[in-house]
Structure formats: C-alpha cells, structure tokens
Model the fold of this input.
Amino acid sequence: MNSLDFKGRIAIVTGGLQGIGAAIVKRLEASGARTRVWDAAAKTDPVDVSDAAAVERATARALADVGKIDVLVNNAGVAGLNVPTVDYPIEEWERVLRVNLTSQFLCCRAIAPHMVKRKYGRIVNISSIAGKEGNPNAVAYSASKAGVIALTKSLGKELAQTGVLVNCVTPAAAKTAIFDQMTEQHINYMLSKIPMNRFVTVAEIASLVCWLASEDCSFSTGAVFDISGGRATY
Ligand SMILES: NC(=O)c1ccc[n+]([C@@H]2O[C@H](COP(=O)([O-])OP(=O)(O)OC[C@H]3O[C@@H](n4cnc5c(N)ncnc54)[C@H](O)[C@@H]3O)[C@@H](O)[C@H]2O)c1
Done:
C-alpha cells in the first residue's frame, strides 16, 4: 500500500460501517487521519444522512468535538429495486433519490461553508458507473448516481477558488452487502459489462477515494474519476 499523508486531518465518511465506506475509513486511518462515521445502522450515534436536521446536528457535534472537518466522503447509498421503469414504485423512486442524492446535497450544504471558512477541504462523492451508463431495471439508482455527477460538477465550480475541491468516483460493481438488495440477474448483467471480467475490490475503490481526499489532489475539481475495469467509454 502506498502511503498518503492524512496526519492531523479529520474525515467524515457517510455509510462507513461496512463495504466500500469501511474500506475508506480503514485506509484513511492507516494514513493518519481521524475519522467519524455517519451511518444509519450504527449502534451508537446513528445518523440518517437523508434527514436534513440529523445532518445539521451531526455536523455541529463533530465541530464541537474535534473543531474542524478536512474531508467529507459521501458514500452512504442503497440499490433500490430491480424492476422495469414502468413498474417502478414512486415511493421507492423517492426513497432511493433521497438516500443516494439528497443526502449528498445535505452533507455538502452543511459542511462546505465550514471548509470554505478554513480555506481547505476535500469532498469525494461516491457515484457509480450506473450514473454514466444507466443500468436497465435500476432507474432510480442510475438517475440518483447521475445526479451525484451533476452535483459534483456544480459544487466543484462554485468552490473552485476556495481551497475546497469536490470530485466523484464512478465504480463498477464491488461485491459488498449491497448485492443482497439486487437480483442475481442484475449482478450477472453488471459483471458481463466489465471488460476486466471481475468485480472491483473495496480496497481499490478506497485507494482512489483517499487520493482524491488528500492534499496531493490539488488541480482537479468538479471531476469524475473512473474505476470501472474498462467499462466506461468517457
Ligand atoms: N458495491 C457496489 O457494487 C457499488 C458500485 C458503485 C457504487 N457503489 C456505491 O458505493 C456506496 C457504498 O456501497 P456499498 O457497496 O459499500 O454498500 P453497503 O450496503 O455495504 O453499505 C452502505 C452503507 O450505507 C449505510 N446507509 C444506507 N442508508 C443510509 C442513510 N440514509 N444514512 C446513513 N447511512 C446509510 C448502510 O447502513 C451501510 O452501512 C453506495 O453509495 C453505493 O451506491 C457501490
């Protein structure tokens, strides 16, 4: 593992209890960062990042406890149902959009002003190859992840002269608990689309995310970073 320098840095990782988020926490901590996990499933201090008031409370608590936030990784997300668009329930559409997209808007909105005041920050949003390509039978997921790309581009440009950089990553499928929410057919479809013919590992995603969250990333903002084993064509 190459070393990154996060000494003295404080990072918030949403959905950091398991899967990709937990791998990001592990890599950040191994590189010297102190981390705080905001996860709805946490036994102590759960944070539902789709709830604006909960995000405001968690931000205030973090700033009171540790004084600053250098890094925000917006990772919490759900897969949503795998059904054709014409059969997709409206409540499920709204839930997936709220958890995957509105949550990232809420966390950016709560934390970015603090980063701007300190003239330093790195925000990394977890999108998906589905947001670029659009996976069939996953309309809400694909649309939410496309929304994350647009959110990243928009905020990145707004903050370009502040010292706060905002980027996103678009991973192909990684074998985590999120697979339990998908049909077998959908998982096979995703694998069939990856030219490297394997799933990406959570450590590989964490490596890219942590570079984007570090000081070494200094001239990229509002950008979309591919990690799709060759699937992405742009
Ligand atoms: N695994 C993949 O194939 C893959 C591919 C591309 C992108 N992603 C994205 O990566 C992110 C992490 O996925 P994962 O595979 O690790 O999933 P996961 O299901 O293993 O973990 C997701 C975590 O988010 C938390 N969470 C869910 N809703 C929340 C909420 N409202 N508030 C706070 N926490 C919440 C869960 O409790 C869980 O700990 C997601 O945004 C997902 O869309 C995953």
Notes: The chain has a mean pLDDT of 98.
